[in-house]
Design a protein that fits this description.
Elements lengths: L8 H29 L4 H24 L6 H4 L3 H37 L4 H24 L6
Length: about 150
């Protein structure tokens, strides 16, 4: 049996940002559709867009960024059991990364767009960048914590 060492923190950081970059695309697309095409207020559209990105990112972080810490393959026999193994991490991810992203994005959007009259897409990009490091650290230490045997 070959033992594969876990990726370095730096490699995880690159993976985290790769997934996050795609998540930014998801967030921007949902925000654009909800605000510009459907006409929702920018704060409501931002909240929904952030949650779409959170769920997208969780799925890929579990399967790519921290796949070695998610022992889904060894113990899970069905899709249902994989779901139940992932559920606590999804809750932690939403509570932590979701809170940082949602509160951070909404607060920054309120300041930059509502008070500063900045373009909502530019403001969203700045808000995402400012929340990224905190989200990585929380994910690395708490959400996808190393399993102790």
């Amino acid at each position: 049996m070959t033992v594969v060492s876990p990726p370095s923190t730096l490699l995880r950081w690159f993976r985290f940002n790769f997934v996050g970059g795609i998540g930014i695309g998801v967030q921007f697309a949902v925000l654009f559709v909800l605000k510009s095409l459907i006409g929702l207020p920018y704060l409501v559209a931002t909240a929904i867009a952030v949650e779409f990105a959170i769920v997208h990112n969780f799925i890929w972080h579990e399967r790519f960024t921290w796949a070695d810490r998610c022992s889904m393959g060894q113990n899970a026999r069905s899709r249902q059991s994989r779901f139940w193994n992932s559920w606590p991490r999804l809750v932690r991810f939403n509570l932590s990364n979701g809170a940082v992203s949602l509160v951070g994005n909404l607060a920054l959007m309120k300041v930059m767009v509502g008070q500063g009259q900045m373009n909502y897409l530019l403001a969203n990009a700045i808000a995402i960048a400012l929340c990224s490091l905190a989200n990585f650290l929380i994910s690395h230490v708490w959400v996808f914590e190393e399993e102790t045997n």
